[in-house]
Queue: 4 jobs
Job 1
Amino acid sequence: MQCPRCEGSGQCSECQGQGSVPCVTCDGSGQRSSSRGGSYPCRACQGSGRTECAPLCASCEGSGQITSQLQDKVRGKYEIRFDNTLPITRVTNALTALCVVLYVLGAFSPVGREWMDTYLSNISGMWTQPWRLLTCVFVHAGFIHLMVNMLTLARFGPWLEGHYGSRRFVLLFVISALGGSLFSSAVNQLLGHAVMSVGASGALCGLCGAVCGAHYRYLVFANEQVRGIIVWMVVYSGVALAWSSVIDHWAHLGGFLAGFAYAWLSRRPSGR
C-alpha cells in the first residue's frame, strides 16, 4: 500500500527531502527583534533561518510503501511485554518469616518487646543509630498490623520478585524501606513530632511505587494491574486513617517515591 503521507515518494512531506525546514521561531528570517527595535540572530537556528529535519518520511521510513512488516514493527514499539510472570517466593517467604518471628518474640516475651522498642524501632531524629531505619520495617505494633502487611506482601511480593528477580527484589525492598524511614524521620523531626515508627507498610508502598514506575517507564504491566495497585493504595490509606490516628503516612509516601524512583532509574524488569 502506498504511503498516504508522502504519496509514495519516501521523502518527508515537510521538507520535501531537503533535510531542513524554515525556523518557526524567526519565520525563516534568521533574525529576531527586541522590544527596543533592535535585531539579533535567532538563537534557535543560530541565524541560519533553517532547522534540521529528517529527509525521509517518518511514516514509511523512506520506503514509500506501508507494508505488513512495517506495521508489525510499529505495533511492537507499543506492545506490552511481560518478561517474567512466574511468581518467585524465596525472598518474600524469608521477609514474612522474619516479621512473624519478631512479632512472636515480642508478643510472648516482655523483654523481647522492650528490646525491639529500644534498639529496632525507628524514632524521629535518631540519626546516631542508622540501623533503625531498616530494622523498624520488621517490627509490628500488633497482630492486625502484622496480618495486613503480611497479606499485602503475600499478594504483591511473589509477583514482583518474579519480574525483578530475587536479588533485585531485595534491593527494591531495602531502598523502599530506607526511603520510607528517612522521609518519615526527616519530616516528623521538621514538624517537631517525636514519632516511633514500625512496620513494613512503607516498604510495601515502595513495591506499589515500583509497579507504577516500571509501567510508565517500560510499559511492563497492564493498565488494569496498575489501576488495581492505585485503588489498593487509596483504600489502604483511607482505612488506615480511619482505623488509627498514629499511622505514619509520611513513611508510606517516602516508600512509594523511593520505589517509583528505583523502577524508573533502573533497568527494565527481566526476571533476573
Job 2
Amino acid sequence: MAEARLLWFDTASGNVSERSVDELPAFAADPSGWLWLDVPEPDAAVGAWLRDVFGLPLQAIESVLERNHVPRLYPVGGDVIFVVLHRPDPGAQGHIHYLELDQFVGPHYLITTHGPRSPKVELSHLLVETDAVAERVLTGRLAVTSPAELAHRIVSRLIRSEEAFVNDLARQVGLLEQKVMAHEGDHDPQAFLEDLFQARHALLTVQTMAMQSAEIYGRGVRLAARSTGNMRKVIRDLQDQYDRIGRIAHSQLAFLGGVTEYYRARTDTRMTIAAERLAVIAAVTLPVTAISSVLGMNVIVQDEMNWPWLIALLAVMSVLSLVLLTWAKRRGWW
C-alpha cells in the first residue's frame, strides 16, 4: 500500500487533502466526507484491505488482481458498481498494449486500481489519467462533489487519450494515403503493406475498446435507473463519449481499408500484367525452342555446318516470332 494515494474530500468545507493510506480505515468510516483511493498494481494485501475496510465481494477483488481482457461493469452490493476499462498503449513492432483501469464507484468512495501490466510497459503509463486528475484536484483547478463525478472526470480523460491516439493514427493513415497516390511504396510493397496493416490493427484495437466500453456503459445506464444523484447522467455521458470514439475509429478504419484496397488492386494489376507478358514471351519462344531443339542438332554439328539449312531455319524462326508477336499485339496482350 506504500505506493497508493488517498485523497479526502471534506463535504462541509469543500477542501481536498492528501492523506496517508494508514488512515484509510478511519476515513472510510467518517460520514463527513468521501475518499478516493488510487492503487497502482494491487496485490493480495490490497485485496485484504478492499475486503476488510470496504466489504467488497471476493469475485470483484479477484477481478482487480487478475487481468481482464474485456471491459466489464456490474453492481457489487448496495449502490456500488465495479467497472473495468482499457486504454491502448503502442508497443514495439505494431503491438498494442491494453492498459487496465478498474473502478469501484460508491456513494462515499471511489477506488481506482491499475494493472496487471506487461513488463514492457512503464508503470507511469498506467497512471497518466489518475495522476493528472489528482494534481488538478489538489491544486484547486478541478472541483468535484461526488465519487461518481470524479470517476467521470478520470474516464473522460482516458477517453481523450484514446481520441488523441486515434488522431495520431489518422495522421499516419493520411501520410500512407499520400505515399500510395505518389507511388512511393511501389519499390517495396511488402514493407509498405506491413505499415498499412499495422495501422489497421491499431485502429481496430481502439475501435474494439471503445465499442465494448460503450456497451458496458449502456448496461450501467439501465442499472442506474433508480439511483439517486447524478450517477445515471454521468454514465450516459461516458457511453456517449465511447460511442463517438468508436464511430470515429470505424470511419477511419473504413478509409484505411479503401486506401489498402486501392494499393493492393494496383499492385495485383501490375503482377497480372507482368504474368501476361511472361506468358506472351513463353508463347513466342516455345515454337522457336521446339524447332531449334529438334533440328538444331542436325544443322549445327562439330565437323560440318549446313549453312543453307541454318539460314532457312533462322528465317523461319524469325518469321514465326514476328507472326506470334503481331498476333499477341492485336489481341492486346502487350
Job 3
Amino acid sequence: MLKKKFAAFIAVALIQLSSSAAFAAFADLDLVQVVYERNGGAEYATDLGNIRSGLSNYDVFKDGVWQTYIPIFAPVNNPANFSLVYFAFDRSTNQLWATGSSYNQIPPVINGSNAGIVGLKSGTTSMYSLYNSQGGSYYTGLTSNYNSYKNRLSTPVGSLANTINAATRANTEASLASLTYSNTITQSLYYWPDATTTVASEKVGMRVASITSYVTVTPIPPAFLLMGSGLVGLAGMRKRIKVEI
C-alpha cells in the first residue's frame, strides 16, 4: 500500500512539473501556428515559443537563409479544407511577423498607421484569452467561437484583422491542399519593424525566413511529448522501486 501511494505521488508530481515547464501561455512575441477549417469546423493553435529566441528546436541555417522545420500540430484528414498561418506580434513595439501563402510569392503589404493594427491588438487579446482558457501551449476548438483566429484575425480571409491590405491578403495564409500530394508545405516568413508605418516602402513585408511545415503520422503537441517522457521515467522508477524493496 505504501509503495502504491508513493508511486501515485510521484506520478502527480511529474505531471505537475511537466505541465508547468511545457505549458507556456500564448502571448506577445510568441510565434503561433494556426490551422483551421476555412468553411467552418475545427481550429488548432500551437504556441511555438518566443520568436526572438530563434526557435532553436526547429531552426536550420542553410545557404544564408534561416529555414525552420515545424510539424503541423493538427489532424488534417482532408487537407484541402484547411488553412495554415504563422504569426507573432508585439503590441508594445508594433513589430509584426506573418507567413505568406507560399515561398515564392508577392509579399503581403500592410495598411499601416494606427488604424491598421487596432483590430490586430484587440483581436489577439481576445484570441489569446480563449486559447489560454485551456491552460497550455496547445489549443483545439471550433472556428465558430467568437474569439477564434478565423473570426478575429482571418476575416476577411488572410487580413490579420485588416492589418494586411485587401489586395495582398490572399498571400497571407497557405492552403494545405498541396499536402494531398506532398508531406510538406513551405511558406516565407515576413517581418515589419513597425506595423503602424505610413511609408509605402516599409509596408511591404521583408522576408526573413522560410518555414517548412510537415505532417507526422500522429501530430502530438510538444507539451504532451514532454509529459510523455516524464511518465516513461516514472515507469522506470517504479521498476527500480520493485527491485530495491
Job 4
Amino acid sequence: MSILRSSFVAAAVALSAAAAQAATVIPVAQDGSWNAFTVDALSTSAANALNWIDTDYSPAAGDADTLSFSFTVADKAILRVVDLFAAGDVFNVSITSAAGTQLLGTSAVTARDLGDAVLPFAGTVAEAWGNVDFSQLEVVLGAGTYTVTGSLLQSVTDGGFALNSTAGSLSVTAVPEPTSLALVLAAVGVVGLVSRRRAQV
C-alpha cells in the first residue's frame, strides 16, 4: 500500500510541477496587428514572477501561465515589442528558432517612479511606439518558425520599490519578397503609363 501511495504522491508532484511550468502559446498573424501581454508578479508564482503572461489569465490556482508567441516566416518579417504601461519598463526578449535562441532586450530607457509628475502613460500602442520614453525593440527575422517569450528586466518603481507589474505588446509584419515587390512596382508603372496615354488622347 505504501508503494501505491508513494507512486500517487510522486505523480501528483510531477503534475503540479508541470502545471507550474505550463505555457500559453499564441499564434501571431503577420499583418502588423498588436498582441498584448502582461507582467504581474502578485498573480504568478515566484518562478513566473517577471515572465510575460496572458492578458486574460485566470489565477484560480494562484499561478498564471507564461506566455509565448509563435509564427512562421516565409521570407522576412519585422518583429516589434513595446512597453505599454508606463515609461521606464524594459523587457528581455527571447527569440527561438531552429537556428537557436537570440536573447535581446528592448531599448534602454530612464528608470522612473510612479510618483514622477512627468511620467507618461501610454494611451495607445501607436503613442507608445512613437515615444522614445517607452522601451521598444524592432528586429528583422529571416525565413523560419519562431517562438518569442519575454520577461521584465527593469520595472517602474512605486515609492522606490519595483512595481513588477506592467503591460506590453508584440507585432509581426511580413516583408514582401523582392520579386513580389518588383512585380507590384512594375504593375503600378504600367497602370500609370496607360493612364497617362489615355489622358493624352
